[in-house]
Design brief:
Layout: E1 6-15, E2 20-29, E3 32-38, E4 50-53, E5 57-61, E6 63-68, H1 85-94, E7 98-106, H2 110-124, E8 132-133, E9 136-139, H3 161-171, E10 175-180, H4 187-196, E11 200-203, H5 210-219, E12 223-224, H6 241-247, E13 252-256, H7 264-273, E14 279-282, H8 289-293, E15 300-302, E16 308-311, H9 315-325, H10 330-336, H11 339-344, E17 361-365, E18 371-376, E19 379-383
Parallel strand pairs: 1-4, 1-5, 6-7, 7-8, 7-9, 9-10, 10-11, 11-12, 12-13, 13-14
Antiparallel strand pairs: 1-2, 2-3, 5-17, 15-16, 17-18, 18-19
Helix pairs in contact: 2-3, 3-4, 5-6, 7-9
Amino acid sequence: MEKKRRILFLLDHCLTPYERIESCGILCEKDTIIAIGGETAFSLDEPGLEVVKLKNAYGLPGFIDTHIHGLEANAIPDFAGDRDPVQVMSRILARHGVTTFFPTIVSQPRDAMIAQVDAMCSSIQRGYQFAEPQAMHLEGPFINPQKRGDQVAANISPVDLGFARELFEAGHGRIKVMTFAPEMPNALKLVELMLEHGVIPSMGHSLATESETLKAIDAGAHRCTYIFNAMPSIYHRSSSLTAIALTDDRVTIEIIVDGLHLHPTIVNMIVRCKPADKIVVISNAVILEHLYENGAEPEIIRTGEGVISGSTMTLDNSWLHLLSYGNMNKSLAAACISTNPAKDLGLITRGELRPGKRADITILDSRTNRVRMTVSRGNIIYDSEQD
């Protein structure tokens, strides 16, 4: 008979995220949570039980980052060996409470992008010791060149359904999200094709009008890539993608909470406008490994022309900013970085701390709110005391 592998985490409290449990115990067997409740409900004398008791610590569902780049914008990655950017992200993100992430690829020339998607797919399918890369997010190439941000104009393509099919085939089911501009010719046909391949259409890098946006939403585009960025500003005498995504409850929106992509007051406005379950916090991070290894603070990354490429902020910092900027209660804020992305992307086993869910737990210090421990599938993949 196979020996049971059980581990019991004892914490000051946890957020499931919808319920706060004081003096919390989370019992995991192999990769699954099998019980959660007050500490006194658990026996500590069970033979072979591993008990991890952390004082001044609280638990949340494992953080899920659905939009993260991991290398400098427009760089061509080398997926070989220890420098595989997905492997690098996996290791670094575990230190920041992330248990699941979606490596994101920007627009590239046709053959190069197809090859990159194929290589990224192969990389994702390898075993990972730390945070798990679940699938890909393609940020392009069918976007509006006038709202390309830091992407290379020559790499942006008109909607080409043949090109899209080649990308989806190269992804072997590992492309989960694609950012596109709803106003581009044949955009609605692209939405239909994405849905046929299990890819979530995300509106962004766009100048779409109200009408163009609503047509895309009606066709099945129910996600918006980092709202307010690379799209029209809100103007009081007209409407556009930005205003519709903010007010249409069918649409889930990504937000970046680093204090520069969005002003704190705008974050607060978003929180007031959108249902709490329609907000997904992302990092949009460009992970530069040496910044963390040298203990540097997160920073904004810009191109030589001053265009924002991303930041080095991870979701543990975003969690603190969301509490501050959005004036959200902790349960709703925790859902924005765990439950909401899990539900939006169909990760039905993740995003909550309850029996039957995958044992993905982010444990933070009650005094500093810094990551103390990260647990993925019941395994401790980061322990600050051993860092």
